[in-house]
Design goal:
Layout: E1 20-23, E2 28-31, E3 34-35, H1 36-42, H2 45-54, H3 60-72, H4 78-85, H5 93-107, H6 116-140, H7 155-164, H8 170-183, H9 190-200, H10 205-216, H11 224-235, H12 238-250, H13 270-283, H14 288-304, H15 311-321, H16 328-349
Antiparallel strand pairs: 1-2, 2-3
Helix pairs in contact: 1-8, 2-16, 3-6, 4-6, 5-6, 5-10, 6-7, 6-16, 8-13, 8-15, 8-16, 9-10, 9-16, 10-16, 11-15, 12-14, 13-15
């Protein structure tokens, strides 16, 4: 056995997957073989959610059935609404998401059934209810009344409605849909690997997704989109951007929203999200963050040859849509539930307990002395 240590499992292939892959031959992230940017152009998010969970794009009949099931499962129990009402107002919404999914597991009659059929039903319920739970907290912490989900609205329209009480123009909804599609899945990232590790012990899907949410919260993973917005707020205006980024590089500060373990010459999701960031900025008549974006990106590529990842354009896009910064990563959650669920079901289908080894570097064997001799 080799004693070589691969910190962070760098370069280690631990299993197989059919869910997604970055295909070098087309320089693109693909879901079930479909390029993510093509899905953004031709599909709504519901179609992509169906694809990730069911292995192929739906026809019109399958899509209608899937949408009907999603809409019918949106509402929460009275108990969960009450729990959300009593959560501390200063709670991070990611912790609210984690707790809400955990409570759903307590309430779900099929929690202990991990058959493929039961897992698919539970995945759809978690997918349907989590946006409702997050939107309820969004309202409650601002001292506003909870807005119940509306079945006549699409997935994205309904989330805007539950948060703000109205649905924005279709171009904004499309941009939001695109962001959900681009965030839906990304192979063995840290939160997905967390979900698969939990599943490998034959734990339940609610537990696996709860763990995945906790993993996604970190700034080196899903929380990066929040950190991007904090950075842009520090810069404040385009005139400050060049000085700020040069100082950051001089001081060797981490610049959030740049670099990726998988992509070395640019995240294939960025051009699509950047396009929709520009569209939203134009609709909102606010080019401030777009100008900051371009200056910082140019310097990072020129000085460090490091390209932006998808979090870089997504953060300011969500800001322009009106969402609070700490809600950016929870939006990531409501999308990535699809990818996590697909991986959880894939893990169950060909399971082996995930149990890596560690190289011990502690004390050599020591003898225990009695208390009065220590």
């Amino acid at each position: 056995m080799s004693d070589e240590i691969k910190k962070g499992l760098l370069g280690i292939v631990v299993d197989e997957t059919e869910v997604s892959k970055v295909m070098p031959e087309i320089n693109s992230l693909t879901y079930r073989g479909y390029a993510a940017q093509d899905l953004c152009e031709y599909c709504r998010f519901e179609e992509v959610a169906y694809l990730i969970l069911n292995k192929d794009l739906p026809n019109s009949i399958q899509l209608r059935k899937f949408e009907k099931e999603e809409k019918n499962n949106r509402d929460l129990s009275k108990n969960l609404y009450e729990i959300i009402k009593h959560m501390p107002k200063k709670s991070h919404p990611m912790d609210v998401a984690r707790t809400a999914v955990s409570v759903m597991g307590l309430e779900d009659k099929e929690t202990s059934d991990s058959s493929p059929e039961a897992n698919m039903r539970k995945a759809l319920r978690i997918f349907s209810k989590t946006p409702t739970a997050l939107a309820a907290f969004y309202r409650i912490r601002s001292g506003k009344k909870i807005i119940k989900p509306k079945k006549s609205l699409s997935f994205s329209e309904n989330f805007f409605y539950m948060c703000f009480g109205k649905v924005p123009q279709k171009e904004i909804v499309k941009a939001f849909d695109v962001s959900l599609i681009l965030y839906a899945e990304h192979s063995f990232n840290v939160s997905t690997f967390t979900a698969r590790t939990i599943t490998s012990s034959l734990s339940d899907i609610h537990g696996a997704i709860t763990g995945a949410i906790a993993s996604l919260k970190g700034p080196l993973h899903g929380g990066a989109n929040e950190e991007v917005m904090h950075m842009m707020k520090k810069i404040k205006k385009p005139a400050n951007a060049l000085k700020w980024i040069n100082n950051a590089l001089k001081n060797k500060d981490v610049v959030m929203g740049f670099g990726h373990r998988v992509y070395k010459s640019g995240d294939s999701r960025v051009p699509t999200m950047r396009e929709y960031f520009g569209k939203v900025a134009k609709i909102k008549k606010d080019k401030t963050f777009e100008k900051i974006y371009d200056i910082v990106e140019k310097v990072m590529i020129k000085e460090k040859n490091i390209h932006p990842n998808v979090d870089y354009p997504t953060g300011p896009t969500y800001h322009l849509m009106g969402f609070d910064t700490d809600f950016f990563t929870p939006i990531f959650v409501i999308s990535r539930i699809t990818g996590w669920s697909a991986h959880i079901m894939e893990q169950h289908a060909a399971n082996k307990l995930i149990r890596p080894l560690a190289s011990y570097k502690g004390n050599k064997h020591r003898k225990v002395m009695q208390l009065n001799q220590r």
